[in-house]
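Example record

Each entry pairs one chain with its bound ligand, xanthosine-5'-monophosphate.
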Amino acid sequence: MDLNNNLNKILIIDFGSQFTQLIARRIRELGVYSEIISHKKLSSNLNKPDVKGIILSGGPLNVYQSKKVKFRKDIFKWKIPILGICFGHQVISKELGGRVKKAKSREFGLAKLKRIRECKLTDNFFDKNGLNNVWMSHSDEVIKLAKGFKIVAKTETSKFSVVENSIKKFYGIQFHPEVTHTKNGKVILKNFIFSICRIKKNWSSKNQRLMLVKDIKKNVGKSKVICALSGGVDSSVVAKLIHNAIGKQLTCVFVNTGLLRKNEEKQVVKTFRKKFKINLIYVDAKNFFLNKLKNVKDPEKKRKIIGNLFIKIFEKYAKKIKNVRYLAQGTLYPDLIESKSVTGSQTSKIKSHHNVGGLPKKMKLKLVEPLKLLFKDEVRKLGLELKLSKEIVLRHPFPGPGLAIRIPGEITKDKVKILKDADDIFINALRDHNLYKDIWQAYAALLPVKTVGVMGDNRTYEYMCLLRAITSEDGMTADTFNFKKEFMQLVSNKIINNIKGINRVVYDITSKPPSTIELE
Ligand code: XMP
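Structure tokens for the complex follow.
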């Protein structure tokens, strides 16, 4: 994305680290605009006066592979502060006369960093004993410092873990301050941008909105755009943002699969068609989905059927709009990061994820993905800035296949109705007790097991409802939320007293791993 602006910025030169985007995110969180540029693309027409500081990222290369490590070496003469992180630290050392070698022992994971001397970069970073836990990931190391540099901190295996040339304002750190595993890592970036680069705050959701709108206008021109709207946060923000940019050139397609949360379809129509006056095609495909899912019990089959049906329906309706050239998607930055764990190992496929993004590849439409450099929390802020309601913006995540994966086994119309009502009671109780915002995701599921109960003087033989509520940062790992017993009893009573078909409520106390958040 070419933001094409004249804002003062921190320029991040990317050498291919999987954390480069995180550096940008942290700096933006601190209220300063940052831009990432590949080391191969650092052109000569870069607007230098806007660049108030440079960060050289980590990366998988070795500094002694000099053919591959190409970048504009004149940056060291620009007289602006430079911070090298991990590989970037090694680049600075090597370029300015130090030496880098393969380390005797690689250093991955947590390391204890010890302060040797005070330095602006590490102000308020260490504990009172001059120690801090930092996260390392490197197999090369600096073995000789460049001229004018001093050691600021070291670990047991890495003598030059933090180094500085305070006259030139060049800094090198071997660990990664941008990952949450490094305690207080943000302090390092804060010190660099504010105390060392002396840049002023200039980045907010408002800036972001204005720039994205400008960018969409410029890229799309007079063409038409379609957007698959699910009612979730990401597609809602995309729709509103694009509508702000190009108005009636946008048409949204909303497919009611019948597997949405209670009254969700009504809310989508009310918000987007009635309130925001966005062109919206509403497709009622409830029966279609139910028919295709008849007798299907296997979770993966369910997911595939739903994903494919969705594409088919979406394509059918999209074709009805003439002269469409673009498809808008709510792709976020985490969707683009290769699914690698922090240790670098490839994760195996657990479930075939489906969402309204990443859809019709066959349609030969160009993609508009305005959120692709943003993280979920940034998207939420942007949503509020776009005047979407808090209810939409702060809503818990909801999976593409919807309630289908919260009804293990066969799905029927009756089961879906029972589940929608139970889920609604649970979620409303969370809102009423001011717990909703403390929970990352909560839902009710309907288990395909009938058990015996007694209501009044009568025997009942009905389904079991499972409640799940988790805390998480990104959905990759999760812990269960601890409710008070009274709250659980209240919800359980309300569900059993109000919904015919459920006579037992259980709470899922497993974390992820070993369980997943959804049941299927
Ligand atoms: P799991 O069950 O994999 O869920 O632990 C992690 C997060 O992903 C959501 N989820 C999905 N989201 N399409 C989506 O858009 C899907 O197919 C899908 N499956 C799971 C889930 O709700 C949780 O937030």
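The first strand starts at residue 9 and ends at 14.
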